Amino acid sequence: MQYMLMIFEDEANYAGGEDSAAFQAIVAAHGALVEQMSAAGVMRGGAGLLPSATATTVRTRNGKVSMHDGPWAETREQLGGFYLIEVDTLDEALAWAQKIPMAADGSIEVRPTIPE
């Protein structure tokens, strides 16, 4: 079964930019996790996302399309990236989710994908 591990985090953690020590530490931690997932044969995909300020939200209601800049949900934690993994059980997916660096100060939503 494939699971999407969605990473929600406070973008303020990266206020120092890509050159900050905090950002570089997170990048290194993700690199190590990707190596572990790849070695275990569970990694199917994933990506980090640019800040929510780069998002555009599209809605269609009653045949009318509306668009606005930014995410629809105005919350502190925003979707910052995801991993797509393939494991046998939810417990295995949850074990991988706990290893994602943002689990320490953000949240990881684990959701099974619709089987093909």
Brief characterization of the structure:
The chain is built from two helices and six strands.
Structural summary, described in words:
- It is a single chain.
- The chain has 116 residues and is an alpha+beta fold.
- It has a single domain, classed as Alpha-Beta Plaits, CATH 3.30.70.
- 25% of the residues lie in helices and 37% in strands.
- It has two helices and six strands.
- The chain has helices at 21-40, 90-98, and strands at residues 2-10, 43-48, 56-61, 64-69, 77-86, 107-112.
- The strands form two sheets. A four-stranded antiparallel sheet has the order 2-5-1-6, with helices on one face. Strands 3-4 form a two-stranded antiparallel ribbon.
- A hairpin with a 2-residue loop joins β3 (56-61) and β4.
- The protein is flat, with a radius of gyration of 16 Å.
What is the fold's blueprint, element by element?
Layout: E1 2-10, H1 21-40, E2 43-48, E3 56-61, E4 64-69, E5 77-86, H2 90-98, E6 107-112
Antiparallel strand pairs: 1-5, 1-6, 2-5, 3-4
Radius of gyration: 16 Å
Structural class: alpha+beta
Parts with pLDDT < 50 across at least 5 consecutive residues? none
Query: How do the SSEs run, as a string of H and E?
Result: EHEEEEHE
Widest sheet, order of strands: 2-5-1-6
What do the pLDDT scores average to? 91
Features:
116 residues; single chain; Alpha-Beta Plaits; flat; alpha+beta; 6 strands; two-stranded antiparallel sheet; 25% helix
